[in-house]
Amino acid sequence: MDKTLNAGLNVGSGAELSFDVSDADFETTVLKRSFQVPVLLDCWAPWCGPCKQLKPLLEKLATAYEGRFVLAKLNSDECPQVAGMLGLRSIPHVLLFKDGRPVDQFTGALPESRIRAFLDAHVQAPSPAKLLLQQSAEEPSHAEAVALLEEAQALDPREPAIAKALAERAALLKAEQDFEALQPAGDPADLQARLAANPKDHAARFDLAALLAHGGDFAAAFEQLLEVVLRDKADHREAARVRMVEWFGLCPDPAIKDRAQRRLAMYLN
Fold it and tell me: Residue 79 catalytic?
């Protein structure tokens, strides 16, 4: 089963490692972000030959360094405000920002070895705990991810990203174990007949939802649980909500999960 991964490094969190910036978003995407992770700013222009050589190399290194820095690409022709503020006189011009200010820079299309040396002087290698955290984010097995995160937490018990990732993956592991331990009961046709006779037969809906989910049809399973949420205002409603939340992390189709989440939020409001 394809499972949603929710753990990761702070700099990962779905953010791109390489992106374009403009005059309008420079403060947010470069200055403010550099308080979280070093930002390498590549100032280039479409007519610049060396820029075309340097750009793919910087993008390659952004991937190779796996989030230890992010690459911001600034077209100096289209961003006169930032270009003027930086005092650009020649391009390519590359600056490294940390904590909201430039800490180093170079001009020209340097070879990869020199750029790596430039980066290594400012970008720290991840700690063993952070390496385990990153490894856990790429681990499809929730059980294996929890083991990695517990090891990481033992090495660095004060790192909030590890604690957050551990809590998330442990919750997903429990939901997965509960789901696998659940033994669906009944015949779908009989359950449908019971619901046709009595739409408020919530026990039948829970059993039918379990049968559908175990058969891989999470969309139909969520429909049954949403019916319980709509028709009941007490304990059955809360039980259906809890069951849906547990199954969101197990649903392999993000579109189905997102639609069910939106409808659940709407029904609860």
Answer: no
